Amino acid sequence: MVEYRIDRHSGVATYVQIVQQTKQALRLGLLRPGDKLPTAREVVEATAINPNTVLKAYRELEREGLVEARRGLGTFVRRALGATPADSPLRAELDAWAARAAESGLDRDDVAALFTAVLDKHFQGERS
pTM of the full predicted structure? Predict the structure, then answer.
């Protein structure tokens, strides 16, 4: 099951953070079709956010065809995204690179800027 982490200082709307984290879990294979998402109540208890925010995120995921709400049962994953399992060798390489970046004194924002620049170079014209 996915555990949402809300960054109140990121400037990104809370419901968008839930949508993004769900999509990331789908891309990494941490969530698979048939898996149940945490209930709104569980997310509220873990993150101290408004239940309507969770429901808004789940409606957005449903609108995108990624999940489906089953009355009285919960919200379930309909389909996966991407093909990058959490144990991919590429993830291990990226992990080692990030460790080297941190050791060389780069902070999170520096690494994010570098990574985004490289993504932009290699994936021109694509949208996530």
Answer: 0.73
